[in-house]
Fold each of these.
Amino acid sequence: MAAIFKWNIMKKITIAIDGYSSCGKSTMAKDLAREIGYIYIDSGAMYRAVTLYCLDNNLFTEEGIDTESLKKAMPDIRISFLLDKDTQRPITCLNGQPVEDRIRSMEVSSRVSPVAALDFVREALVKQQQEMGKAKGIVMDGRDIGTVVFPDAELKIFVTASAEIRAQRRYDELKAKGQDASYEDILNNVKERDYIDQNRAVSPLRQAEDAILLDNSQLTIEEQKRWLAEQFQRVVHG
Ligand code: DC
C-alpha cells in the first residue's frame, strides 16, 4: 500500500494546455508548474524567438519571409529558457542571449503568425518541444500541444473565453501599464488572430478529442487555479 502511494507521488505526467490567444493560458500553466515543481515551457515564445531572429537578420522582405534563408538558418537557431531568480519567471533566450522583452514587442507580435504557419519552422520547433518533454514532469502551453506535440499527454486542457472578455482583459492590462489602447482595435485583433490560428493549413488550433474544455469567461484567476489543481490531482492520484 505504502509503495503504491509513493509511486503515485513520484509519477510525473505531461500536461498540455492549448487555447485561444489572450485567454490566460500562460498564467495558469506557469502557476501550476511552479506549484507542482514541473518544468514550464511557453511554446509561443519559441515561435516568437524565431520571428525575432528573422527581424534581426533581415529575413522579412518586401515579398514576404525569405524562407530559403530561414530554412538554412533553422539548425543554428537555438532557443532555451532561464529562470529569473527574483520573479521565478522564465526568460526566453535566443542563441544564448535573453530576449524575453523583445519577443513581447508589437513588432514581433504582428509578424509571428506567418512564421508560425511555416511547416519547416513547426517541424523543427515541435522536435525541440518533444525533446524537452521526454522526461515528463512538464507543463507546456500553446496551440497544438495536445494534438501534435504531446498527443499522449495524460492531462490536456483546452482554454477559451469569449472574444469580448479576452479583449477587455487585454485592454485593462495595457491601460494598467499606462499604454494607450482602443477596445475596438484590440477586439478586432483578437478575432483576427483566432481566425488565423484556426484556419492555417499546418497544425490549426483545435481541441484534442480527449482535452477538457475550460471556458474561463466567468472565472477569477483563483477559481481557475483551483480548478486546474483539481484536474491535476484527479489524474495523478486517480
Ligand atoms: O501564445 P502566443 O501569442 O505567444 O503565440 C505566438 C504565436 O505563435 C501565435 O501566432 C500562435 C503561434 N503558436 C503556434 O502556432 N503554436 C504554438 N504551439 C504556440 C504558438
Amino acid sequence: MSDKPLVLVINAGSSSLKYQLLEPDSGTVTADGLVERIGEPTSVITHEQGGADTVEELHLPDHRAAIDKMLELFAAKGTDLAHANLCAVGHRVVHGGRSLYEPTLIDSHVIDEVERVSPLAPLHNPPNLVGIEAAQAALPDVPGVAVFDTGFFHDLPDAAALYAIDRSVSEEYALRRYGFHGTSHEYVSHRAAEFLGRDYDKTNQIVAHLGNGASMSAIKQGRPVDTSMGLTPLEGLVMGTRCGDIDPGLLLHLHRVVGLSVDDIDQLLNKRSGLKGLCGENDFRSVTEMIEGGDADAKTAYDIYIHRLRRYFGAYLVELGHTDVISFTAGVGENAVGVRADSLAGLEGFGIAIDPERNAVRSREPRVISTDDSTTTVLVVPTNEELEIARQAKAVVGG
Ligand code: AMP
C-alpha cells in the first residue's frame, strides 16, 4: 500500500453504515463498503477491496459491532487500519445547527453540540453520533473530523434563508433554511469550474443534485445564494419518497380534518410521498420502466417531478441573472438522459440548449451536454461526497 495519508470516511445512518478508505490527494479508493440492517436479527455487510466483493450475513447488534466487523474485513484483506497510514476518520454529519459549519475536529464540545441540534435532524444526527462514538472506540488514536451537510450553505443570504413567519418564534427555535447535500454541491460546483478552466469566484452556477434525495443550489460568483432544501431535507424538489414543497396548510388539514397524528404525517411526507407516493415506486429506473409499459400514474409522477425541477430552474436562473454553468449530478442527474433533456427543454430563448447526442453519452467523467452556441454550459458532473469529506478532513488535521 502507498505511504500517502489515508482517510476513512464514515456515513452512519439509523441502521446502516457506509464507509470508504481513500487517499484524499489522488482520490484513489482502497476499499469501500456498506453495512445494512444493523440491530436486526440478520445484518449484511458488503465490503469491496482489491477488486473483490465480500458479502456476509451475520447479527450486528449496534454500530460498534458493525465497525469492528468492518475492521476485521479490512484486516482479512491485508489492511490493518489500526496501523495503516490513517490521518483521520471523516464523518458525514447532517446537521451542524448555526454554530458548526466548518469541517471540525471532533471533541466533547462538538459531540455535545451535534447532540443539542439533533431535534433539527432527528433521523440523521443521532446515528451520526453513534458512528462517531463507535469509530472513536475502535480507532482511539485517529482524529475524527465532522463534515457537515449544512456547512456549504451556512452563509445563505437572509432573503433566501429566513422563513416568513413570526421572527420571535424562528429566532427562539433556530428555524431557518439550512440546506443539505452541501458536500455534493460544493464538490460538483468546484469540479465544474475546474473542468471548464473557469475561476470559481467569477462563475454563476446552478447544481441539480438528483438522487433518491434531491436538491438544487444557486451559486453566484462562488457564493451559495439559494438552495431548495430548508430546515429539513423535506423541502424543495420531488424526491424518491419525499414530497418536497407542499402547502403547509395541507399538514394542518391532515391533522385536523383527516385525523392523522404528527408521526403519521411525518411518515406520509418522508416515506410515502414523492415518486413512491405518486406511482408506487421510488427507484427512478423502475418509474421509467413503468412509463415504458404504459403506466399512467408513473407518467404523471414523472411530469410532476419535471414540473418541480423546471420551477426551480426558473427561479434560480432569475436569481442569478446570468448563469454560466448548470450541472446535473447524483444517480438520476448522472444517468437519466430524459430528465436532463425535459427539465431544460424549450429554453433556447434563455440561452440554454441541450445537444441530444452529447446528452446521450454515458461516462463516469464530467462532460458537456449543451450545444456550442448555448450561452449557459450544461454539464453532467459525477458527484463524489466521500472524496470531498476526505479532503476536508485531511485539511483539518493538517495531514
Ligand atoms: P443516489 O441517491 O444518488 O444513489 O441515486 C439513486 C437514484 O438514481 C435512484 O432513483 C436510481 O433509480 C437512480 N438511477 C441510478 N442509475 C440510473 C439510471 N441508469 N437511469 C435512471 N436512474 C438511475
Amino acid sequence: MTDSLHRRLLQLRAEIEAHNQRYYVQDAPSISDAQYDRLMAELQSIEQGHPDWITPDSPTQRVGAAPVSHFTPVRHAVRMLSLGNAFDEEDILAFDERIATTLAESGLLGAVHADAADPRDTLSAGADGGRTGSAVAYMAEYKFDGLAVSLRYEQGMLAQAATRGDGSEGEDITANIRTLRSVPLRLRGEAPAVLEVRGEVLMARADFARLNEAQTARGEKPFVNPRNAAAGSLRQLDPRVTATRPLRFYAYGWGQIQDAAGTDVRPHATHAAMLDWLAEFGFAVSPGRTLCRGAAELLRFYAAVGAARADLPYDIDGVVYKVDDLRAQDVLGFVARAPRFAIAHKFPAQEETTRLVGIDVQVGRTGALTPVARLQPVFVGGVTVTNATLHNEDEIRRKDIRIGDTVIVRRAGDVIPEVVAPVLDLRPAGALPFDLLAVCPVCPVCGSAVERPEGEAITRCTGGLFCPAQRKQTLWHAASRKALDIDGLGDKLIEQLVDAGRVRTLADLYGLTELELSTYPRMGLKSAQNLVREINESRRPALSRLLYALGIRHVGETTARDVARHFGSLPAIMDATEEDLAQVPDVGPVVAASIRRFFAETHNREVVAALHAAGVEPQADAAPVGERPLAGKTLVLTGTLPTLTRDEATRRILAAGGKVSGSVSGKTAWVVAGEESGSKLAKAQALGVPVLDEAGLLALLG
Ligand code: IVH
C-alpha cells in the first residue's frame, strides 16, 4: 500500500517537472494551469501524510524557505566574466581578424573550421582585401537583457545559486532561484559530480506587463522595465515573494565541472556541443543560437536578429559571438575581466535618459488633450527623439514625472517613443509638476471650453469640428488605410489644406483639383494627379468604411461594419433611434448614444449631404461567408413592391450574396413579385419557379 503510494509520489514529481519543462523550456505546455495545480495538490497531500518522504528536489520544495535578513556572500569557483562590447561592423571585422591572426600564429586555424577544405579557409581572401572575414566558426547567441547567475549542482542536485557580483564574489540567492520552475532542482540523466551552469534570469515582456498591471491595481509602484522587475524579484529577502514573480532562466555557459575524483573535466570540444549537453539536463539553453563562419555571417546574424528583435518574447540588448572551438578559446585567453574569444555586439539602446524640457499639449481627433514630452534630443532605438508621449495626465501623476526631470525614454521597434519614468535621484530642486488644466484652461488650439467627464482619464476640447486640430485629425483618420484609404494625403498636406482654409470638412476633399494641389509645397503635378485619382476612387467606399471614416466616437472598424451590415444604407443609420441602434449585436447604449448624438448634430448632417452632393456613394457591405443566405442563388424581381424600391431590393439581395437577373429560367431560385407583375410571373408559374412577395423576400434576407 505505502509502496504504491510512494510510487505515485515519484510519478507525480516526475510528471510535474516534465510539465515545468514543457512550459518553461520547450514553450509548449500540454496541460492547463488548473490541471497542473491538481497534480501539485495531490503531491502535497501525499507528502503531508508522509513527511519523511519529502526530499529537496520535490516540486513542493521550490517555495517555502524562510525569509532572510541579508544575502550571504559566495565565492565563485570559476570567475564570472563580462564581455567586451562592439557597436559597429568595423568592430566585428577587427574582432574576427584578431582572432584569425592569433589562431593562425598558434597553428590552430585549421582546427577551428568545421570543414578544413572550405575555400574560405584562407584569411584575407575577400575581394575587398579581406574585409569579408575569416572562416573561424563562432556560436552566435542572443545577449539576454537580464541578470547573470551561476547555478551549482552537486551530485545532480541544485546546491547553490549565486549572483554574478563583482565576478569573483556574488550573493547566495539559492532560495529565490529554487522558485523558478525553469530551473531543474535535479538534473536529468547522468550528471557530473559538480556542474556550474551559467545563464541569465529574465522576465518575458508579457509576464512583465501582467505583473505591472497587478502592481498598479494594488496601488504599488510599477516596475520601469522587465530587467528592473527581474532584478527586484531576484533580490527579495523573502523567497515567497520571488515565487509570485514570473522569472525564467536561460543557460548560455558553464563554470566549474568536475568528475567524482574532483578533477576538472570538459566533456565536449566545442561550445555548441557543450550547450547541447546542458540542454539534455533540462535547461532552456540559449534559444536562437546559430553557428556562423567569419565576420560576414556574424553580421548577417546581427541584422536578422535585429529585425526580429521586437517579436521576441523578451528583451535582448545585442548578440554575443563566441569562438566555438574550446581549445581555440584557451589559446585566445583573456584581457582583464573579459575573454578575448567572445564579444557582445550591441543593438542601439531602446532606453536612454535625457532631460524633460517641457510638456506640450496636443489635441487629437476626438478632442483629447494629450500631453507630449519635449525632450533634449536623445539617440534611442536607432533614431534621435525629441518628443515622446506621456499618455495622459493621470499617467504623469502616477509616474511622478516633473518638468526638469531626467527621464528614461523608451523606443522599441516602431512603437511611438514614450517617457517611462523619472530618475528620482537626479531630480533638480525646481522640477515642476504638470497641471493640465492650469496650462490649458481652454483648448490650446481653438479656445473652446475643455471638459473631463467624471471617471475618465482624458480631458477634451468641446469644440468639435470647429477646432482646426480636431479637423486635421479627423481628415487624417478619414484618409487612413482602414477608412477611405486615400494614399498620398499625408498629415503635412492636410495641415496646409486646413490652415489655408481650403478644406474644412471631408466633403471639401472632393473639390480639390490637380492644378490646385500641385501648387502646394512638395507636390509635383504627378503626385497631384495621383492624389486626385485616389480621391476619385474613394467615391465608392463600402458603407462600413465611410461610417468609420466619419470618426464617430466609439465607432471602430468592427462596430462600423456591424452597423453598416445591419442597416444597409447611410440614411437608415442617420435616422435610427438609440433603440434601433441597440438592436445591432455588440452595440451597447454608449455606442448607440454616440452614433445618435453624431447624426443629431446639424453640421455632421451637412457634411453627409455635401459628401452625397460631391458624388460619394457608399456601397453595401457584403455579408461574411456563412452569413449570406442567398449565396449562389439567382432571383428575378418583377412588379412594384409595397415598400422596397427596385434598387433597394437589388442592393439587399446582392449584399446577401445573391444575384439578380432580368429573365426567368430554370436556374432562377425565386421570382419576387409585386403589384402589376406581368409575363415574368407567368413564366415562373409555367416553369414551377417559387414566387415570393416582399415579406417573403425579407424573411429570406433574415
Ligand atoms: S557569455 C565568458 N552569453 O552579458 C563570457 N553573456 O556583458 C561570459 N549575457 O554578465 C558571458 N546574454 O549577464 C554570455 N548569451 C550570452 C549572454 C550573456 C547575456 C550577459 C551576461 C554577462 C554580460 C556580459
